[in-house]
Amino acid sequence: MALRVVLIGAAGVFGSRIAARLAGDPRFQLILAGRRQAGLLALREDLGGPAVQLATLDVTADRLGGALAELQPQLVIHAAGPFQAQDYRVAEACLACGSHYVDLADGRDFVAGMRHLDARAKAAGRLLVSGASTVPALSSAVVDGLLTRFAALDIIEHAISPGNRTPRGDATVAAILGYCGRPLRVWRDGRWQQGRGWMSTRRQAFPFGRRWVGLCDVPDLELFPARYPGVRTVAFRAGLELKRLHFGTLAAAWLVRLGLLRDLARHAPRLRRISEWFLAAGSDVGGMVVELAGRDLQGGLLRLRWSLSAAQGDGPQIPATPAVVLARKLADGELSARGAMPCMGLFTLDEALAALDGFAVGTQLDTLTA
């Protein structure tokens, strides 16, 4: 029988891409859910005919549990961010109605905190997964895939930079702005130190050229020091293709740091609209790099750079892919894990890249010299 999937936030930037990849697949019975019926109707029209059900669902509503139970899901994919200010009511509602749960959260505390539901999820025989996105799902799959080349891994530094013409949603913008200029814990030189969101800016090499990136607060900063014992430094940065937007965001981060702005995230819709004044500039090419340094199996220094580039506006497919991979594995009976956990170790890098076949996505691996 087809797996009954409720996709919350289906009309969003990432939800709509997940919907397009699950709709019409006989392994799934898809229900598109969200707060606004108009957006869901438009999405169903865009999908071009697959029979999908629509459901108006607000994750902040008091009746969430009952409304979700009425849909009788076997898997809920939660793509309605930002997650930084959310609690675990959707995951708890899934436990109550006997459904598996996957979200696209990139909030550091939210993803790490999912483990508090682990005992309840195991007792119920359900899988609750947080962070099925670029970080920590894909980033950890890259590190896991390269780890066997190292006798000792010392440094993990990774970064992303979307193309300027890549679609952006208010939730994504709000998530970034929420930590700009604010203090965050970073694992550096074998101990916890303080950094500042969007600061520690540097030029980062990508397959398509160098771009400016700044420090970001993501689950990897919390999870990787424990996942990869012995690693001495973990850093994650992100940036915008256009210097005017990247350094404009940096200026706003300084205003937060100086106490002149309190809540930058609440300006996300307005700032997102301002950024779209410049859509004609830049490109639709974005990507991700993961740089690892340590000792190889012979004891020599080893530095690797794994790179991914996405063109033709396919960048948003990257954070959408982990949820698609997990849904397919659950439908095929290939995912036996149960409990509540961050999205790490649940699929391989090869599985993720296979799910991106057909999109304008390429990868490469380089050995760097000192």
UniProtKB/TrEMBL annotation:
It holds the Pfam family Sacchrp_dh_NADP. Residues 5-127 form the Saccharopine dehydrogenase NADP binding domain. SUPFAM superfamilies: NAD(P)-binding Rossmann-fold domains. InterPro entries: NAD(P)-bd_dom_sf (IPR036291), Sacchrp_dh_NADP-bd (IPR005097). It comes from the Bacteria. Transmembrane segments: none annotated. PANTHER family: CARBOXYNORSPERMIDINE SYNTHASE. This is Saccharopine dehydrogenase. It comes from Rhodanobacter denitrificans.
